[in-house]
Amino acid sequence: MPPAVKARPGSKAPLRSKAPSLRHERTFKAQGIRYLAGVDEVGRGALAGPVSVGIAVVDLERQKPLAGVRDSKLLTPAERERLDPLVRRWSVAAAVGHASAQEIDSLGIIAALRLAGTRAWQDVVSTGIRPEAVLLDGSHNWLSPAEQLSLFEEPVFEVSCDAPVHTKVKADMQCLSVAAASVIAKVERDRMMRELHLEFPDFGWDINKGYATVLHRDVLRAAGPTPYHRVSWRLLGGDLLDGGLAGGEELGDEERAEGEVPAGEG
DNA sequence: CGTGAGTGATCTCGAGGCAG
DNA sequence: CTGCCTCGAGATCACTCACG
User: Fold this and answer.
1) Rounded distance between C-alpha atoms, residue A50 and residue A197, angstroms
2) Does any strand C atom come closer than 7 Å to the Cβ of A11?
3) A235 touches strand B (CB under 7 A)
């Protein structure tokens, strides 16, 4: 995919869009909205590990911009770690929800995103803050409950996202609430991948975070997938599953389910 | 020449538009 | 209605280039 920014001829500095602000968020004030939830996802394209959804709620009547926050991809790991507690204090409510690789396999990535987002939403609502609108990164609303779910049975939640969802392409680049959500989601998922790395150190998850690096794919080819791999994906172009699972034994569904990540952690 | 930052290529899946 | 293509999102990594 082409990048969002182009190099400016004759200059090293790119023609980067301005730092994200609350300008777009404040347009919701005219609709009488006070609490707006910025939502972003991380881990969508990874081969292993959970998909995670961050929510950062802003109070449009009182919130001030938080310096330094940008889309998590544009920040170094150290900057993200530094900003994570600041974002959580800055937000009137913040949460990260996860859906495991096994849930991605059984539900599909979009439904798994919804599951992770709903878990985060439950955490937010449990604090007593109920956002009146949602600002979602991208062009597709995967957060609202689907009318027609997949063939698989979807878990039923007492609290699902019932607020109107507004999608915006590149919202993480322009909208501070969404950028803030991307930071906390990325930090939390990275921590989880470092923990999973202790269990399966050969894959280099502390570095690649479950993404398809050369090392990751080489080990995957040699050792086979772990319970944390999204085996329904064409992990290695479809020639993966001949070797069985890493660790030398195959796991049944129940055993694989034990590898699930805790929901709504954070 | 070393370093740091940005670009482009790479991989994943799903949604939506369009042609047949 | 079906299949294909484009574009949306996520990320890492090799390469390029400006600067000190």
Assistant:
1) 13
2) yes
3) yes
**A90, A155: one domain:** yes
Residue A86: in which H helix or E strand, if any? Answer: helix A77-90
When divided into structural domains, chain A yields a total of 2
pLDDT given at position A32: 92
Co-location of A114 and A237 in the same domain: no
Nucleic strand B within 7 A of Cβ A262: no
Boundaries of domain holding A108? 23-196
**Burial of A69 (C-beta count, 10 Å sphere; 0-12/13-18/19+):** buried
Protein chain A, residues 120-139, with a C-beta closer than 7 Å to any atom of nucleic acid strand B: none
User: Does residue A159 share a domain with residue A240?
Assistant: no
Boundary residue ending a domain (A149, A164, A196): A196
Q: Which of A93-107, A114-128, A177-191, A214-228 has the lowest mean pLDDT?
A: A214-228
Q: Is the CB of A71 under 7 A from strand C?
A: yes
C-alpha A28/C-alpha A88 separation (Å) is 22
What is the CA A123 to C1' B11 distance in angstroms?
32
Q: What mean pLDDT, rounded, does chain A reach?
A: 74
Mark whether A191 and A216 lie in a shared domain: no
Beta carbon of A43 within 7 Å of strand C? Answer: yes
